[in-house]
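RECORD TYPE: protein structure
NAME: Ribokinase
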Amino acid sequence: MRCALLLLTVRMSISRMSATGAARPIVVVGSINADIYLEVPRVPAVGETLIATADPRIFPGGKGANQAAAAARLTGRCQMVGQVGGSDAYGEQMLERARACGVDTSLVARHPTASTGQAYIVLQADGDNSIIVVGGANQLWPEDEPLGAGTREAIACASCLLLQREIPERVNIAAATLARASGVPVVLDVGGEDSAVSKELLALCTSVSPNETELARMTGLPTDDDARVLAAARALLAGGMISEVVVKLGARGCMRVGADGREPLWQAAFPVAQVVDTTGAGDCFTAAFAVACAEGRDVGASLRFATAAASLAVQTRGAMTSMPAREMVERLMAGTAA
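PREDICTED:
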């Protein structure tokens, strides 16, 4: 009975997304970072010193801000809820860049004493990266009432709520609880904090999107080939709390497994001439998938739209700066057979 009610709730949520997605903005609750890039030929071994191949560069980022920028560029309507520091110059710089992408940042708070979050990105020559995050203001939300009245109203009126894991779990739970109470679908990108996702949060999510590494961590199962990815996704669904798992597979594309009884759906990656920087590509994918679902596209079309967007993102350096405009995604899909 619980499973049947859960699936009915998901279908009602998807119907609401289809009917109102064009009029209602996507709301993103999450992190805002200054991404500091260190370019190296490879990751140094323990005790080894390497010389960077370029001077450090600073780009706007944070998983929340990246997804907000992607959603705004793809839809023109996205509200960002987050925190930046009041003790440094990074915060306003990051917000200016988000606004340039079309993001509504009026609900972003400025912490009076904390620094803006920072991510130190070690970028290798082949585009792969390793990242160290300093949470700063992203981790210091108010204890008693983390979400203000304006944020609560925005979530209740959203077409979809996007969450990630670079802010405290209690904030995500508060946001997701508000969304589900208003019939708003909740999409959780599992990237960020590497601790276990709470059962309380998972039970509030409509869709959960991990990459292979995150899926392995969530299930304790190997994910080193497609068959094992599928088995791990099914194991995650077997817990009875999650309705849909959308696994990001990098250069192999993505896979969707649902509790609706449908066969798993696979979407191959779009051809990429050169991978420049993979930072933010997963954020782009998750945001684009949410946008496509909110517009009423079916699951297969939504996967294709998200994969096309992510394939464009990896061809530009930076996270937020790599998020493609909608017309770029549409042109790519129009020129590539389904």
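COMMENT: Residues 2-20 form the longest helix (19 residues).
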